[in-house]
Amino acid sequence: MDEILHGTYEAARLIVTLDRDLLEIIVLSLKVTLTAVAIASLIGLPMGAWLAVNRFRFRRIVIAVLNALMGLPPVVVGLFVYMMLSRSGPFGAMGLLFTPSAMIIAQVLIITPLIASISHQTIRDLWAQYHDLLISLNATRGQRIMSLLWDGRRALLTAMLAGFGRAVGEVGAIMIVGGNIEHATRVLTTAIALETGRGNFAFAMGLGMVLIAIAVLVNLAIHGLGRTERSSVW
Amino acid sequence: MMLIRAWAVVSLLALAGVAHADEMRLAVTTSFDNSGLAAVLLPRIKADLDLDIQMIVVGTGQALRLGEAGDVDAILVHSRAAEDAFVAAGHATHRREIMYNDFVLIGPGHDPAGIARAGSAAQAFGLLAQARAPFVSRGDDSGTHNKELALWQKAGVDPGAQGAWYRAAGASMGATLNTASGMNAYVMADRASWLNFGNKGDLRLLFSGDPVLFNQYAYLPVNPARHTHVKAALAAKLEGWLVSDMAAGLINAYKVNGEQLFTFNARP
């Protein structure tokens, strides 16, 4: 109980004093995660829509695999990306290991299935409503996907926010591929793991509260921009 | 890929700031980082050599793997047998001893196994096995874990064949200390990690001082013949600094709660 109170105090102190190191890791956390969400959305949203409007032979299997990949253990992704980017791995020459880029790659792999899966489900329902209309307008496949994505944009925002939530709180993969290097690849979650290992529970709790506050702020900001939750129908 | 590259450039620029010092990657053990000594040495190295050390903090096992793959430029670890094998396999050009600290035995304050009165480390481990007192092991193939296994062997105990009192945590030093603190169990730790640990609970330092508990740290530069991209010149520069009088002074003077943690013993 004491630790939690101390944690609250630490969190307040960290925010009020605007600790420079803390600011650095917050900025890096946001940079890595928002970039990963942007890339994963560019891949995942069209993929989900494409799966919803197309009928092909292995559709069920592809969708089942995609849903299963939502539960991919981040540590496994981290290990995989490490082996790919390691100097002795196939992409070693690019020298990306232990850089923010490596962390972004790992997070993209983790959240793309999540975003694709949720958007697939959303668009499938929307497609059931729009099917006859879009067919009668003789819309091309690309036009169908675009109009479904646009009309489902609010629900798709939820898919992106789910991806953001999973990525910003992730520690297993980015610890392996980022290395938790101070002033280079240290982010909020790896800093929390580090402080817990040092037995500094109050400080770790403080960082955890900062992380939650940032996640809430990002969600609020995006809802504000999207003008959602304002009236009964949007 | 283009996007990622662009990001890499942007974030590198943002992180590096204006002035650009040399950078090298050094894999170190958790015990070295937990000791707090790194926080003393790194700023001094930066000032003297204009060299930014990017530390990757992992167990000795993983540090050696990183060196083998060429993902770091040098490693600073403490596991003699593994280091000798590493050099013999040609992964490092040589092994340079820098300093030592020691391991200590930690346990519940009332010491049910009575190891505080043991005459040697081997005897203390024998008492632990006799009392079947809960013991938390790193169990992660780290330098500390290897040392612990060697000490059990010396005491004539096979911990793998023991009952539930022997718990292999498979975790880093800090996580293992947290586990021991939660279970109020015995645990072996390096002195530095123990002194800096913030969640001691009922645990006390019960046994230390046997010379077999000494823990030698060595610096191994990754072999540039194996990996042409490693920054061998910077690694050599860092080695020169680590064995200098400046390093000796800082290492010997570093104290936590008034206790000296490391003893410099590099030969020039």
What's the topology here?
The complex is a heterodimer of chains A (234) and B (268).
Chain A: H1 2-17, H2 20-53, H3 59-69, H4 74-85, H5 100-136, H6 141-151, H7 153-168, H8 172-178, H9 188-197, H10 201-226
Helix pairs in contact in A: 1-10, 2-5, 2-6, 2-7, 3-5, 4-5, 4-8, 5-6, 5-7, 5-8, 7-10, 9-10
Chain B: H1 2-16, E1 22-29, H2 30-34, H3 37-49, E2 51-58, H4 60-69, E3 74-77, H5 80-88, E4 96-108, H6 121-131, E5 135-137, H7 143-154, E6 166-168, H8 173-183, E7 186-190, H9 191-196, E8 203-207, E9 214-221, H10 232-242, H11 245-253, E10 255-256, E11 259-260, E12 263-264
Parallel strand pairs in B: 1-2, 1-3, 5-6, 5-7
Antiparallel strand pairs in B: 3-9, 4-7, 4-8, 4-9, 4-12, 10-11
The CATH topology of the largest domain in chain B is D-Maltodextrin-Binding Protein, domain 2
Mean pLDDT of chain B: 88
Tally the beta strands of chain B. Answer: 12
Q: What fraction strand of chain B?
A: 15-25%
CATH superfamily of chain A: MetI-like
The number of distinct structural domains of chain B comes to 2
For this structure, the quaternary state is: heterodimer
Mean pLDDT of chain A: 89
Strand proportion of chain A, as a percent range, falls in: under 5%
Sheet with the most strands of chain A?
none
Q: Would you mind describing this structure in some detail?
A:
The complex is a heterodimer of chains A (234) and B (268). Chain A has 234 residues and is mainly α. Chain A has a single domain (2-226), classed as MetI-like (MetI-like fold, Orthogonal Bundle), CATH 1.10.3720. Chain A contains 10 helices and no strands. Chain A has helices at residues 2-17, 20-53, 59-69, 74-85, 100-136, 141-151, 153-168, 172-178, 188-197, 201-226. Chain A starts with a helix and ends in an 8-residue tail after the last helix. The model of chain A has no long low-confidence stretch (mean pLDDT 89). With 268 residues, chain B is of the alpha/beta class. Chain B folds into 2 domains: 21-100 and 215-264, D-Maltodextrin-Binding Protein, domain 2; 103-213, Periplasmic binding protein-like II (D-Maltodextrin-Binding Protein, domain 2). Chain B is 42% helix and 24% strand. Chain B has helices at residues 2-16, 30-34, 37-49, 60-69, 80-88, 121-131, 143-154, 173-183, 191-196, 232-242, 245-253, and strands spanning 22-29, 51-58, 74-77, 96-108, 135-137, 166-168, 186-190, 203-207, 214-221, 255-256, 259-260, 263-264. In chain B, the strands form 2 sheets. In chain B, strands 1, 2, 3, 4, 5, 6, 7, 8, 9 and 12 form a 10-stranded mixed sheet that branches. Chain B has a two-stranded antiparallel ribbon with strand order 10-11. In chain B, a hairpin with a 2-residue loop joins strand 10 and strand 11 (259-260). The termini of chain B are far apart. The mean pLDDT of chain B is 88. The A-B interface holds A 28, 31, 35, 39, 86-89, 92, 95-101, 104-105, 179-184, 194, 196-201 and B 3-5, 7-8, 11-12, 15, 25, 30, 34, 52, 54-57, 68-71, 172-175, 177-178, 181, 196-200, 227, 229.
